[in-house]
Fold each of these.
Amino acid sequence: MTAFPEKRILLIIGGGIAAYKTLELIRRLRERGIFVRVVMTEAAKKFVTKLSVESLTGSEVFDELFALTGDSGMGHIELSRDADLLVAAPATADLLAKMAQGLAGDLASTLLLATDKKILAAPAMNVRMWLHPATQRSVALLQKDGVIFVGPESGDMACGEYGLGRMSEPAGILTAIEHLLSGDMRLPLPGDLSDESAGPGSLKGRRVVITSGPTHEPIDPVRYIANRSSGKQGHAIAAAAAAAGANVVLISGPVSLADPFGVKTIHVETAQEMLTQVEAALPADIFIGVAAVADWRVAETSLAKIKKHPEETPALTLVENPDILAAIGRRSKDRPALVVGFAAESEKLQENAQAKLIAKNCDMIVANDVTEAGVLGGESNKVSLLTKQGKENLPLMTKQKVAARLIEKIAGMLGGNGQ
């Protein structure tokens, strides 16, 4: 257990059901000797009481903006300046919007605006609220301003829905806080990678371009062709590369995932858009094609919704989409030093992956059996790393650990130590 006896946290508790988790977070922070001051929004007091928070912190809870003004100066300025780190948890959609717009109508938003210290935000809200363009604009602007995010995570919600928007557990937020208090501005990957990480500087100075998620090829305004990809593996690899010090550009198809911290993320929809953005991101040292790109698209997209008729089945003419992996692997100009592809197969895994390695002029193929339970859309993966020199079969593990091992392998190959 790492101790920080002289560090001070200003914890801003927003008004969401996840506020109850902050009680456990406070307890863990106090165990490490960290002094915690707490500010609660009016809505937060609907979920946890000031008395319970004060009992855990051993100090007064602040909730009134004008109660802090006095003869000695502006109290809210002193509160924010006295802290080593500000933590907003839960960071609700409302609180994030106020932060992004620079509003200061209550004590919480005023403190977040009146600080020159790092801010860590742990979002928590309904999945639809998280995915709403307004929230995503707020998050993108705050990330650009230097706010660091931990979470949100996917799971069951108090409202009865399932999806992305759950606040990270106290242990995860605590790990992020410890890294930031230690001066490390790059957060660890979800699920503590410990000694499986390639190391914080193993890809320092390298530029990495990664594709992730599916592509959506429109048939009409409401229908499309796609593959079954959640984007979890590609996003985990982007986060692992960033944690290893790389300059990462992630080109993502439509997914319900937060953009990885420390990564430039470009959102696209179709295979053609993805190829355009990949080529625009070159030159790069490494290209990793994780996206499940739709093999075909319709020759002509209908501008109106195609109606069903009892005696008539619409005829769709399909044309091949660009092969992004082959296009990058076969480049004569600006070809990355390492081109890594993914082969999602349902049969003859090794044989098909080996053929893909050669046909698309790749340096490595990550082969995964999509018939393995929990791989498609799940949290785990079972892969083999194939190069022209041999292969390495990995056991079933989390997608974060697969990402860490892949980045470690890549770093070794660039250093001349790859197997």
Amino acid sequence: MANIQQIAKRAGVSVATVSRVLNHATSVSPKTRSKVEEAIKELNYEPSMLGRNLRNSESRLLLVLLPTIANPFYTEIINGIQDTAIASDYNILLCETDSKPERENIYFNMVKNKLADGVISMDPTVNMQRLNELAEHYPVILCSEYEEKGDIPYITVDSELAAYQAVKHLIKLGNEKIALITSDEKFLYARMRRLGYERALKEFDLPIRDEWIYHTKGLEFQYGVHAMRMLLKQEDKPTAVFAVSDTLAIGALKAINMERESSDPIAIVGFDNISFSSMTNPTLTTISQPMYTMGCQATEMLLGRIKGEKVENIVLDHELIIRESTMV
């Protein structure tokens, strides 16, 4: 492969002149620029992006923090992030933290050492104190999960309102015994969705019963199966369930299907509208988050921060998608 010295020799100019052409400097005459570009074409020269980025003190790399890539909720958001980043000549690196501080440190140090230009965090388990410290000097955006009254710009949906509308839908169908399958309430999304659940019950003077609120250890499918089995063992069983994620809701559907002969019909509503939610039996009623749009706009926000621009928080619209699981 040709190098910059060979280009300079072929064009009959200095190496510095070739460098100015490659960096689109306006101080090069059209005639000289044409000679250099012809030499580049003849020798099939490809400039080093790494070298150019190092000279410009940029990596053209964006970090995307998430607790696990196994959760299908993240898929469409990542697609939006990647498409928007590539369109702006950036690449992304998916950083699975597995909720481990030592992994976070590696990724934070990449930004500090200019191996990455900024961070989009979708990790609800991230150390917010350290992330806030990073955000004081480097571009950081929160996506989906955010910090109440925090300083880091975020993009999300109104989880409380969405949960309220989901539970209100179950009530209007005639359900008065509505359970909640939720996760650890140290996470903001779990707290907000519980608030929406309770708001709907209070509005219709329905009881909030502790035995119908089941906290799981995670969002994986198997936790939804276990939670639903526990609810089905109760003497006074709920007639409907709101789950704070589709993966938990799909697990609940699995448990109901396994007990269908010995159980009365139970309506289920999930949250997220992941691709699998339309493939279940029955298909899942759920709150749809605009996940691809969320990823696109999170990236645009981060690119704005990289340019030194001030960006505002964004709360996107959600939609209740009604399917078979509430038509029991």
Amino acid sequence: MTLTQNTGNSKHTERTEHGVARTSIRTVRRFTRADRASRSRGGQRFLLIGLVLASAYSLFPVWWLIVAATKNRTGLYQSNGLWFSGMHLWDNLRQLFTYEDGIFLRWTANSFLYAGVGSLGGTLIALAAGYGLARFDFPGRKVVFACVVGSFLIPIALLTLPLYLMFSAIGLVDTVWAMLIPCLINPFSVYLAKVYTEATVPFELLEAARLDGAGELRIFFSVVLRMMTTGGATVFLLAFVNTWNAFFLPLTVLRGEENWTLNLGLYNWTGKRLESGVDLTSLVLTGALLSIAPMAVMMVAMRRYWRTGVTLGALK
């Protein structure tokens, strides 16, 4: 379809102060459908180029990490950083799993424990709190909600030192609970649960369940949780990623290597080059590549919940 533009003439009659009519011709420009379609295609091309550039910017570090994990120490420092120079991935994996009696596997198990159990418990608490704020009327509800909103605006780094002092006073430093307890409380998850409850759980359904004789706990576990599957999956996924990537909190409250997270252990390996002269860069990069695999698996495994949420929003 070619770009066309129509130009028409319109007559305009005016009268002067002496009563003499004067006619002027004014040019009127009209845009056809071809003009609108061309401008629409131009906007789509611009949007497509922007999305391609954003995707390339996001995937570039992942590509570099994949390439670097396949190299040995010599290839890592003497070859092109964006292309392969020999396949040494399996050698790196074997060294990674056997170094220091397989301490990498212990760190991985710790990360799964902290992220999995902490996020699951935190999701249940957040859904219950969000449901209570959304569907129960009690004195001070607005004040409580304002405190929730204000709490997740505080950076976690500012809370790390008070948490350390509190755990140190009660003897929980360098224990599993020092990581699990902070993961159970997430104000932002409570906010998301409240918003999702208001959108998906109607008052009429709750009143019908109460008229049938169901208690509040049964209503929450049998009715509300089933309706909030998509919201719960979203809260769990965000909490899992946040806990899995946590660094400053475990650095502060965990001392022994047996309780370290994966990120903290890999960070410790990067400092061994300065302390003992042992270069573990290849192992660190291979471990970093493996550390992103659980989050990718979580995204793929929970994709149906994301699709359900998108469909629900479209129907509403």
Amino acid sequence: MLLLQSTVPLPHDIPLPLPIPETLLVAVLIVSFLIHIVFVNLMLGGSLLTFWCQIKGLKEKEYDTLAHEIAKTITVNKSLAVVMGVAPLLSINALYTLYFYTANSLTGLMWIAIIPLVTVAFLLTYLHKYTWTVLANNKPLHATIIAIACAIFLFIPLIFLTNINLMLFPEKWGSIKGFMSALTLPNVFPRYLHFIFASFAATGLFLFWYIGRKNYPFETIFKKLTRYEIRKKAYSLVLAASGIQFLVGPIVLLTLPSKGMGWNLMLVIFSGVVVAIPAMYWIYKAITGPKHRLANDFWKVALCLTFTIIFMGYGRHIYRANSLDPHRKMVAKKTLAFTKASEEARKNPVEDLEADASLAELPKGALVFKQNCAACHSKDVKVVGPPIIEMVSIYKGDELGLKSWIKSPGKKRPAAPQMPAFGDKLSEDDLTELSRFILNTK
């Protein structure tokens, strides 16, 4: 704790009450984030699969048709991802204000760039969707549109992950010099890879259900591809992507700094893995078994993977809470001290604002100086502007000249910043008292 305190910034927090009990706000954060991230997965995975099918469709026409069918879902999932993202964003702002906004400011331009990037990517998906017929004879151009959207969709989560990762490491804030610097922190890229393959797994499971619906007019859309073929490929994608997640997962854990580790985290992660194993077995059995058994265990698979997602989402919160707990305790202690000092200052405003007796014999002038000038000037040491003793040497016996300079200063020293003009900010009485205080300082 002492080492942490000596190496990290410890600002006081804003002592404002949460709008709802913290436990409820944490629940809102976890649940809303999980719903949001599923639709983000479907948006990204759907875009990537659309691009792949469209490229494959240059030679096999039916895959272009499949690309069109997947593309129809992207804009819907995109809209749901945006709407469902409001609650977790507001929740994390309320729960981790200090950490979230510090990370935002340190990643700077890239964090702000999310807004125009999202806007462009969304417009490209609509352009791609509604120009399918118009650009039917120019498939390379049409595929380029979704390719650019995919590239942007791949970059936006990297910005989010980098930002969220950065908020967990207050001890690193002093060394971060922007987005590229934050990318070098541990765990960013392993988590990013885990997210990418989660997108493929979620999209494969969604596509298996979407194509398999009884009211889906498959036979009127596809002539060569069969429903079984597409669903089997979708299931295979789920199995392959989940298998890679099983390999990437341990790397994610190993690259997580130990400060956030705990038995509670390991128990939750292990539970998520255990629940996912039977789902993988059922999928494998389905794609290697007879055709009529392909969808037999679908809802069991979906339920198991849903629980896995819940465990992983809760594990993410546990690690965040474990990581930030020591720092939050120190900030809370400083906030308490700050609050007490503020209350004391409000109870004794005159005593706190009284001038230092060593500066001069005129209390009111000293008070005006301390309130308006002390940030840049001291008695005998140059701070930003010249010290008081230098002012005395220049304006001794010229109170009117000093008052005129304070009201509308010029610039005499090339190496020093321009002094701001006080103009009418000081009353004539305050200006007189301030000038007398300066000129009577010894």
